[in-house]
């Protein structure tokens, strides 16, 4: 990356049905690559990769501006209304290895709804799922996206007040991933300036991890 005028970051979005992970992926890409709408059943049934255009004005290195490209892997929800846990896990694991085998994964984005409480059982199952996908170093390569932040704001919660009132389960999860979290508004399409802020935060998480990448294999270890 240091020898190029362009940097690519590889991301995967993970989460439960109707958390807004496909919408979050579209926001990060600045596109509508992924199908996203309200539904009584899980919308995403297979993994798909979206790629952004070149993005300028986000990152500089050694005094020079780099162009940024974002790759986002959208995934079926866990749990899923039509697929078993094993089917989701194997599908995601295979897609991660297929798309990011050579370049590696920079961050897994665990998508949670800011307007819904995180319960212990849900958190335990989610963490186990991520551990099975990413392995023992999952904490270094995981950040939390809190979607529907607009609804929390409408209820009178600033980010600080929200975290002050959050469940111990959520606070424990955020602590385990070194407080790598971002609030995201799902009410409207993310504007260019807001997208730049989110991407800079993600790049900061990646920088804090010394630009390491997680290399993935097809084997079911």
TrEMBL record:
Pfam families: AIG1. The keyword Transcription regulation does not apply. PANTHER family: GTPASE IMAP FAMILY MEMBER GIMD1, GTPASE, IMAP FAMILY MEMBER-RELATED. Coiled coil: none annotated. It comes from the Eukaryota. Residues 6-221 form the AIG1-type G domain. GO terms for molecular function: GTP binding. Keywords: GTP-binding, Nucleotide-binding. Belongs to the TRAFAC class TrmE-Era-EngA-EngB-Septin-like GTPase superfamily. AIG1/Toc34/Toc159-like paraseptin GTPase family. IAN subfamily. This is GTPase IMAP family member GIMD1. It comes from Burhinus bistriatus. Gene3D superfamilies: P-loop containing nucleotide triphosphate hydrolases.
